[in-house]
Amino acid sequence: MRRQTQLKDSDIKKLIKFVGYGPKCHVKILFLGYEEHAPKGKKEYYKNISARMNFKPIMDLKEAHDRLGKAGCRNPFDCDGKNPVKVWNCAARFALEFANHCQWSKRKIWSAYWRNHLGRKEGSTFLMECDPIPKHKHATNIHLPEGWDNDRIWNERKKALLKRPKVLKSQFVIAYGEETKAKVQELFGVDKDGWQKRQKGKHQISFASKRRTHIAHVEFLGRGFAYKKGIPFIVDELVKRGKNRSRRRR
């Protein structure tokens, strides 16, 4: 496995072409993060990276992770309902709240949603990462080829993402992670001063709109996020923005 720590130029290009999980057509809700979920264990991490090099630009979430499972990697869909990817849990709650599901916060409801609907090719949600290389403590042992650094990876990654205008024209965007705000500005053309900041408990949430796309940015999404109050607050604000824009176009 040691030789796999040195990525080649062609390896980076294969990883960069992967856009995310979901349908190829226009989607209603886009979740934008800064790092892909990484497995535990050094050997499994390198197997995971190698398997991702064969991903298509857009993948069905379950099909992609089934493929990782066949490569000897841990597959969240085989974990007896215990999902180790907490961001998926939160994304499922958001999607259910957007759909006005009265039991969106119930575990059996949102756990069934991420397993059957989140990031699926026939669904209405899309999961996208700004960084195509999963982050983990073992990522420090990944050596980039000469001429590649984080800035170049992002510039090439941005080109791949911008080739998917139907995805980037999502009606609602939930961006999470401190570094994603700058990426949102580049991908969606949001001015850095175009954010409206709101506070909900301990969490600062920023909102912006660009044409028919309405965006919320939170610094953290997962355990500790105010699920019962934060998610309805964000969804209500985004839906309100969408309705206001519709009225102005009439």
What does it look like?
This protein has 250 residues and is an alpha/beta fold. It contains nine helices and eight strands. The protein has one domain (2-249): Uracil-DNA Glycosylase, subunit E (3-Layer(aba) Sandwich). It has helices at 9-16, 42-52, 61-70, 86-98, 107-116, 150-162, 165-168, 180-188, 227-249, and strands at residues 20-21, 29-33, 58-59, 125-129, 172-176, 196-200, 203-210, 213-218. Helix 4 crosses helix 5 and helix 4 (86-98) crosses helix 9. The longest helix is centred in the C-terminal third of the chain and has 23 residues, at 227-249. The mean pLDDT is 85.
Main-sheet strand order equals 3-1-4-2-5-8-7-6
Largest sheet: 8 strands, mixed
- CATH class value: Alpha Beta
Overall number of structural domains = 1
Q: Give the amount of beta strand, in percent.
A: 15-25%
What distance separates the N and C termini? 60 Å
Helix content: 40-55%
Give a count of the beta strands, DSSP E runs of length 2 or more.
8
Give the helix tally.
9
- What is the average of the pLDDT values? 85
According to CATH, what is the topology?
Answer: Uracil-DNA Glycosylase, subunit E
What ranges have pLDDT less than 50 throughout 5 or more consecutive residues?
none
What overall form do the CA principal axes indicate? globular
Architecture (CATH level 2) name: 3-Layer(aba) Sandwich
Radius of gyration: 18 Å
Computed structural class: alpha/beta
